[in-house]
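[Discussion] Sanity-checking designs against the backbone

I'm trying to build intuition for which residues belong where. Below is a structure token string of 122 positions. I'd appreciate it if someone posts a full sequence so I can compare it with mine line by line.
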């Protein structure tokens, strides 16, 4: 691997090769589907109930993402009030924050399309 490739891969929390994802990113998709999809819609694309996480991840760090997931937040404006409940006590979410972040980051970066991603080695 060239040094430039090593630097590039070190920056990304996911691996996508020929449209297939690594185990961590696939697990992130699974955890997202189980715990986040009901509000944020299929594939992180958002819904009438909650915003697109694919768009949100483009403008935040993983630390900011983790903070919101663990502690929740309330956004109030003239048109609406959005509440993200805290998931800090939900083990199936907190234990896999890195995996969920990897999946959403791959989606936000355009490296991964919609739907169930195939795994490398399958």
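Best answer:
Here's mine. Compare freely.
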């Amino acid at each position: 691997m060239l040094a430039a490739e090593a630097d590039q891969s070190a920056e990304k929390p996911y691996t996508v090769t020929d449209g297939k994802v690594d185990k961590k990113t696939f697990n992130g998709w699974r955890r997202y589907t189980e715990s986040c999809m009901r509000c944020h819609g299929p594939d992180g694309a958002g819904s009438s109930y909650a915003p697109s996480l694919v768009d949100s991840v483009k403008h935040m760090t993983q630390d900011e993402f983790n903070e919101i997931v663990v502690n929740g937040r309330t956004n109030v404006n003239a048109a609406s009030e959005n509440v993200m409940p805290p998931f800090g006590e939900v083990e199936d979410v907190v234990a896999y924050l890195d995996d969920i972040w990897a999946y959403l980051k791959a989606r936000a970066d355009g490296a991964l399309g919609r739907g169930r991603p195939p795994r490398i080695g399958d």
